[in-house]
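Open question from group meeting: does this chain pack into something compact, or does most of it stay loose? Before anyone orders reagents, we agreed to write out a predicted structure and look at it together. Recording both the input and the output here so the notebook holds the full record.
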Amino acid sequence: MGPTLTSYGRPFPRRQAQRLVELLSRPESALQAVLTARRREGKSDLLVQIQAALFDKADGPMPFRYVFDPRRAPDALARHFAASFCQQMRAFVMRQPEMLGEPLALLERELERPGLPLALTELGREYLALSSSARLEFAATLPGQFAYQEGRPLCLLLDNAETLEVFPELLSTLDDPRLSWLLTGRCRPLRRLAGRRGWPLLPLEPFALEEAMALASERCRQFEMPWVASAWQDWFAIAGTSPEWVDRLIESAAAAGRRLDSLEDLGRAYVRESAGGGMGQLFQERWQTVFADRGVAAEASLAGVREASHVAARLLQPQGGMLEPEAVPPGVRDGLAAEEWIVETPLGDAVRLSTVERDWLELARNTARFGAQRAEAGLLQAFLARAEGARQWRQAGDAVQEIRTGLLALPGLAAGEGRSPRLPELCS
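Structure tokens returned:
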């Protein structure tokens, strides 16, 4: 697969993309599944990479990637969907991927562009002749009709696909056997939709450590930042390998004219981003959304502040990782689930805060209790302590591997009965 520009600013293909391309390209029983992951972990970027890889396969399915906007009315959605399909199929047929980045024109203009397949031009004119009430249903069948007339398979890559539940016309088109498809979007509604319709779920595979290290190294090079491999290795051990936070930390440090010369510099950048930077603002908006549906802003009144503080305490100190049913009001619970701070399990609601989310929530709570300076100093010290712990575990693992390698080199242990000896045998 060729390199694909992701939203994180550099060509960096995921390994999972190529495997999914192969499954989506099978002549029979092509993949139809829902891609799941937490927010900000790269689901949308994976769809971009799959689209690019399918574009490169001239003999594979024709790829159509679409991002739903829930704010669009049915008629506007139908028009935008049809125009996007025409633009992307024209680019595919003409083998010119740069056309995918062109501004989308009105459907009438897209139908007039040179190079558009004749079958699609005729389907587009048929769409325009319909009444507005019939257009969404026709637009939904447009990919299947075009695939049939062209005599080749087509792959749908649909983002924000939880919107499909609102538009049954679009949902029914996924039953077309000529189409392979991959859906992604908000995890909670998509899981429910997949459960009702019997669709398989595919988890997004995180970046491997070496992939994340390569991404961070490249971003540091782009922003002329020093590359301190040990500091970033500690970061990934603590916070996971999501490229979202790598991008934010490096860009914010570069914008402020600061360097990331050490683990402590990286920790200070993390605290600044969590306290008042883009990361903190992102989590703040999500936190306010939890309470917005109940008509109570988290900071609008004394009661709102108390309720937000109570909910934060419950999330930070769950009993065995579970949230008791009476711990938060029902409306807040729905908000927490929608924002993926908790997930539904057969045994109840489980708290699912990532390290970065937990740090932000604890920082916000401690700022209200003890002041910003003390709270930020506490987060920095906690970060450095966790990094030291992660480093010690890594060093211990390296030492164990070195001992095992040395023992395996002893006469009579390197090979025995066609298998490698187990650790108890080595120790004995």
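Observations to bring back to the group:
The first strand starts at residue 32 and ends at 36.
Confidence is low (pLDDT under 50) at residues 1-11.
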